[in-house]
Amino acid sequence: MSIIDLPPEILCQIFQSTADFSVVNALARTSRALHSIWLANSPAIFFAVAVRALPNFSDAERLIIAQEEAHTAAVPNFPAPSLSRLERFLFNARCASAACKHWDEVCQVHNLAHLRGNNPALRPSERARFKRSFYHLWTLSTLSNTPSLRPQALKFLDACDPVELAGLDEIAIWAYGYNDNEFGDSGLDFKDGTWNAALQMIGQYCAWDKKEKSGHRRVPVSGHEAPLSFWVFFDHTQHYLGQIKAHW
């Protein structure tokens, strides 16, 4: 018995149980029958595999939920957005990748070869940290720009641990000072009003002048280790995270 002789629901489960998308791609290319299974069940297969294969899946999913809630709050008597959840996920992921590429170009961490050894370029683990904070920033922007969802934005910040807050603080500084809106067709524009509420909320929530009065201090990372004072996302500066206070 060949694999393509199995019932379609079993073949779909095989796709959904794969470890990553390279295996999904290989299966879909094996035969017309398997390719048809992929086409007919791509959203279910995608999200089943994404939970295991994508490090920021839960953050990306939270953003999609916020976007759907914001749409419902804005136009309660109209249907959901034309984009499917899968299409929205992929669009958001392209935006996150474009933002990360810009951040890499700004930081030029590859110039720190003396600290980063034989692999000075931006690494997958560092991209994952940046994208996680980027999804958090976008979620806050979505919630804070919808009046009925603003309490959720504050709850979102309250639920962040100190490392997550440090990431938000750093990515907000990047968005304020280093974005030139050169994101191609990704649709990002940090200079318009959509992002202002979230950036201001992060600035107030993570205000260091207030925290220093209560005994907290910025983590002292030297300039030669931290390009443009950015350090939260880099592998070679992760040991400084242990110095962040347990409670902000």
What does this structure look like?
There is one protein chain. With 248 residues, the protein is mostly helical. The chain has 11 helices and no strands. The protein has helices spanning 8-16, 21-28, 32-53, 57-74, 85-107, 113-116, 124-144, 150-159, 162-177, 193-205, 208-213. Helix 1 runs parallel beside helix 3 and helix 7 crosses helix 9 (162-177). It is globular. The model has no long low-confidence stretch (mean pLDDT 82).
Walk me through the topology:
Layout (H helix, E strand, L loop, with lengths): L7 H9 L4 H8 L3 H22 L3 H18 L10 H23 L5 H4 L7 H21 L5 H10 L2 H16 L15 H13 L2 H6 L35
Helix pairs in contact: 1-3, 2-3, 4-7, 5-7, 7-8, 7-9, 7-10
Structure at a glance:
This protein has 248 residues and is mainly α. The protein has helices at 8-16, 21-28, 32-53, 57-74, 85-107, 113-116, 124-144, 150-159, 162-177, 193-205, 208-213.
Tell me, what's the shape?
Answer: globular
Beta-strand share of residues: under 5%
Number of strands: 0
Mean pLDDT: 82
User: Low-confidence parts, pLDDT < 50 over ≥5 residues?
Assistant: none
Query: What separation lies between the terminal Cα atoms?
Result: 61 Å
| Rg from Cα | 21 Å
- Structural class per helix/strand content? mainly alpha
